[in-house]
Amino acid sequence: MSEHHTFRGNWALILGASSGFGAATALELARRGMNIFGVHLDRSSTLSNAERIVAKIRDMGQEAVFFNTNAANAAKRSEVLDAIEVKLSEGDGGGKVMVLFHSLAFGSLGMFLAPEPRESITQSQMEMTLDVMANSLVYWTQDLIYRGLIGNGARIFAMTSSGSHRVLPSYGAVSAAKAALESHVRQLAVELAGRGITVNALRAGITDTPALRKIPGHDRLIHEATTRNPMGRMTRPEDVAATCGALCVPETYWLTGNVLGVDGGEDNIG
User: Fold this and answer.
1) Could you give the number of structural domains in the chain?
2) Which helix or strand (DSSP H or E) is residue 181 part of?
3) Which helix or strand (DSSP H or E) is residue 239 part of?
4) CATH number at residue 50
5) Is residue 269 situated within a structural domain?
6) Is 109 contained in some domain?
């Protein structure tokens, strides 16, 4: 693969970098020549996931700077961006964040109207889910812009799902967050158009990730996706990563404000 200025020497910032879509995209963009900033939240039992991704990126000859912290916390976000600002100022100071990839999958699952009132989603759970899985995209984008860390012509991607327009068991708060995320993508696309920065949501098919395994009835979802998908298999994180890499080239500058299905046609089947 020939080197391209969009990739070589520049950086991607991956939110949710240690597993699933974030990990696969970090590796794909590193393979294409990008250095990687990764933000993840892991306890000691899962920290090896992030360490493995960092090692693979460095084996490819790219830089990897990962932060084990809460990406949805304003103070922690500021600390990460302070460190990024210092890193980008090193050397000739020419590097920029050219990709922001948002894949934060932390929210509350449960019914709005459970048989027992105390088991229903609470206001704090609803607000937390929307803040982490949707609103945080806006806050990270704002800070990258106002700090001058993101380059003109950059690409912003946010992971959504068919839950934004379909009802799944106990998925109501997350579904609302995904719908809000898609709305944020459209708004940001319009406001960032003058900078040549594109913003798109990637709607993956059902994918066997740690986040999916937390959804009640995930075994049934996996079975249905496997049998229903026109391609004859489930979506894989690498499918999404490959799409993300392909959309980072300058020739896709006119593609913005969309929800792009990366699901093998799964969402078209009732």
Assistant:
1) 1
2) helix 172-192
3) helix 237-246
4) 3.40.50.720
5) no
6) yes
Question: What separation in angstroms does the CA of 167 have from each of 115, 143, 163, 171, 184?
Answer: 18, 33, 6, 7, 21
Yes or no: say if 184 and 158 are a contact pair by the CB < 8 Å rule.
yes
* Residue 93 pLDDT exceeds 90: no
Q: Is the confidence at residue 1, as pLDDT, over 50? A: no
Task: Give the separation between CA 264 and CA 230, rounded to whole angstroms.
Answer: 6
Contacts with 207 (C-beta within 8 Å, 6 or more apart), sequence order: 20, 21, 234, 235, 236, 237, 240
- Per-residue pLDDT band for 2 (boundaries 50, 70, 90) equals very low
Tell me, yes or no, whether 3 lies in a domain.
Answer: no
- Give yes or no for a contact between 203 and 267, defined as CB atoms under 8 angstroms apart: yes
Residue where the block lists tokens 């500021």:
78
| 270, part of any domain | no
Q: Which two tokens stand for residue 23?
A: 């990990």
What does the pLDDT look like over 168-209, one tens digit per residue? 888 899 999 999 999 999 999 999 999 999 999 999 988 877
Tell me which residue range forms the domain holding 116: 11-262
What is the rounded CA–CA span in Å between residue 91 and residue 88?
Answer: 8
Rounded-to-integer distance, Cα 105 and Cα 120, Å: 20
For residue 6, what pLDDT is reported? Answer: 66
